[in-house]
Design goal:
With 483 residues, the chain is an alpha+beta fold. The chain folds into two domains: 254 residues, Beta Barrel (Cathepsin D, subunit A, domain 1), CATH 2.40.70.10; 171 residues, Acid Proteases (Cathepsin D, subunit A, domain 1, Beta Barrel). 14% of the residues lie in helices and 35% in strands. It contains ten helices and 31 strands. The strands form five sheets. The chain has a 15-stranded mixed β-sheet that branches. A five-stranded mixed β-sheet has the order 15-18-27-19-26. A four-stranded antiparallel β-sheet has the order 17-16-22-23. It starts with 20 loop residues before the first strand and ends in an 8-residue tail after the last helix. Pfam families: TAXi_C (PF14541), TAXi_N (PF14543). InterPro entries: Aspartic_peptidase_A1 (IPR001461), Pepsin-like_plant (IPR034161), PEPTIDASE_A1 (IPR033121), Peptidase_aspartic_dom_sf (IPR021109), TAXi_C (IPR032799), TAXi_N (IPR032861). Keywords: Aspartyl protease, Glycoprotein, Hydrolase, Membrane, Protease, Transmembrane, Transmembrane helix.
Length: 483
């Protein structure tokens, strides 16, 4: 499969069971919904989602935005935000793999006009917003985003953006400054309406999948590390800390995504690899059932198209071929009688009637500063019927040459943990946690600590609700193809 030919992310595939999911910016709240809620999908679609995501993670960008400009088109979650004055609602994909927020604008060429997601698309019109203002090429935002003045810049020339993806699709437009409307958490289960001012992209032209997708949205909301991202802009304005955390519950349902200072639970961290566009970390070794895999010493080296990325927008987990083969061999050594079958030409599945946690090994990923990510059999195995299971580990060597040496750890291994992305201190961490409970974040304005939980925030905010279709139900469609 050539990832460069596919149209790809978001941010967050919360594999949850008919639960409620909350997004909060420490003390800010957005409405979040599942892009495919109630729609049946098969194993191939989940793999295709990841392939499209990785295409955008690995693709090139024209006029790179802060070194990180890879928004993705097929993320499974989207947020409802308000823009302008008077405020209008827009539905945007949430993406950790890109930086800027952009929405389709009035007069846009080849922008989608309808969506199969059951939402009404709205074109943003700067002229209809009393608070809108254009950003020009000589403005500080533009020069800092592009590390200097753009060639040909002259007075009153808008600051433009143009992102080109690996499959040839693209988005182009110009930056504007306007109000963003959100709900601020002012207490446990209490919110009030609040506004901030941010700079975002006004999409004037789309091509490829961005202009024709039946699953179209109004735009993309990037949660990357660059100064141009919304989280960085809100942090600069004193609204939030430059950090966020999520807790994905695939046991009891529910999930939390909070941006701001995480107070509880306490999380140990490992340093990020510096000067990377994505959330890269240093992996040291892998342990399967107590056995440390013997791997080439350079297999986890960081560098261009190498290293380990923590990405909850990816559904499964992708390993370099040498790592994948070694891991699968060790798992089979501990289950020598296992009869494996290939499903849909890409998934390794088998029949097993026992308790997988008793019959299969625990896998541990060891990172710099002694941080360990523990993955249990019920995490890395998908049960698609009463006694049919499939491995979530994927062979990165079967992908394009751009991605074959990368390790991508997705939602498969991140569920049932609080995962912290501390951009300010360039660290990522996690701890096992009951994601159906709540976490605590600090309100940057008052210093007060509030509980953030999916059910509490959903009850408190009219902007929050979302019923999530379980992954296991979505996988059941392919059972008739298992032999």
């Amino acid at each position: 499969m050539d990832l460069r030919r596919l149209v790809p992310l978001l941010m967050v595939l919360l594999v949850v069971h008919l639960g409620l999911v909350s997004f909060s910016l420490g003390n800010l709240v957005f409405k979040v919904q599942h892009k495919f809620a109630g729609r049946l999908r098969n194993l191939t679609e989940f793999k295709a989602h990841d392939a499209r995501r990785h295409s955008r993670l690995l693709s090139s960008v024209d006029l790179p935005l802060g070194g990180n400009g890879h928004p993705a088109e097929t993320g499974l979650y989207f947020a409802k935000i308000g823009l302008g004055h008077p405020s209008k609602d827009y539905y945007v994909q949430v993406d950790t793999g890109s930086d800027i927020l952009w929405v389709n604008c009035i007069g846009c060429d080849k922008c989608p006009t309808k969506s199969d997601l059951g939402i009404k698309l709205t074109l943003y019109d700067p002229a209809s917003s009393e608070s809108a203002a254009r950003v020009y090429c000589e403005d500080d935002f533009c020069t800092s985003t592009y590390n200097g003045v753009l060639p040909g810049c002259k007075k009153d020339l808008p600051c433009q953006y143009n992102v080109v993806y690996g499959d040839g699709s693209s988005t182009a437009g110009y930056f504007v400054r306007d109000n963003v409307q959100f709900e601020r958490v002012t207490g446990n289960q209490q919110t009030t309406l609040s506004n901030g001012t941010i700079i975002f992209g006004c999409g004037a032209q789309q091509s490829g999948g961005l202009g024709t997708s039946g699953e179209a949205l109004d735009g993309i909301l990037g949660f990357g590390q660059a100064n141009s991202s919304m989280i960085s802009q809100l942090a600069s304005a004193g609204k939030v800390k430059r950090a966020f955390a999520h807790c994905l519950d695939n046991v009891n349902g529910g999930g939390i995504f909070a941006i701001g200072e995480l107070v509880s639970p306490k999380v140990n961290t490992t340093p990020m690899v510096p000067n990377q566009a994505h959330y890269n970390v240093y992996m040291k070794e892998i342990e399967v059932g107590g056995t440390v895999l013997e791997l080439p010493t350079d297999v986890f080296d960081s560098g261009d198209r190498r290293g380990t990325i923590i990405d909850s927008g990816t559904t499964l987990a992708y390993l370099p071929e040498v790592v994948y083969d070694s891991m699968m061999n060790e798992i089979r050594n501990q289950q020598p009688g296992l009869s494996l079958h290939t499903v849909e030409e890409q998934f390794i599945c088998f029949k097993y009637s026992g308790n997988v946690d008793d019959g299969f090994p625990v896998i541990k990923f060891h990172f710099k500063d002694s941080l360990t990510l523990t993955v249990y059999p019920h995490d890395y195995l998908f049960q698609i019927s009463e006694d049919i299971w499939c491995f979530g580990w994927q062979n990165g060597g079967l992908q394009s040459k751009d991605g074959r040496d990368m390790t991508l750890l997705g939602d498969l291994v991140l569920s049932n943990k609080v995962v912290l992305y501390d951009i300010e201190n360039q660290a990522i961490g996690w701890t096992e946690y009951n994601c159906s409970s709540s976490i605590k974040v600090r309100d940057d304005k008052s210093g007060s600590v509030y509980s953030v939980g999916a059910e509490n925030l959903s009850a408190a905010s009219r902007l929050l609700s979302g019923r999530i279709a379980t992954l296991l139900l979505l996988l059941s469609a392919m059972l008739h193809r298992f032999t």
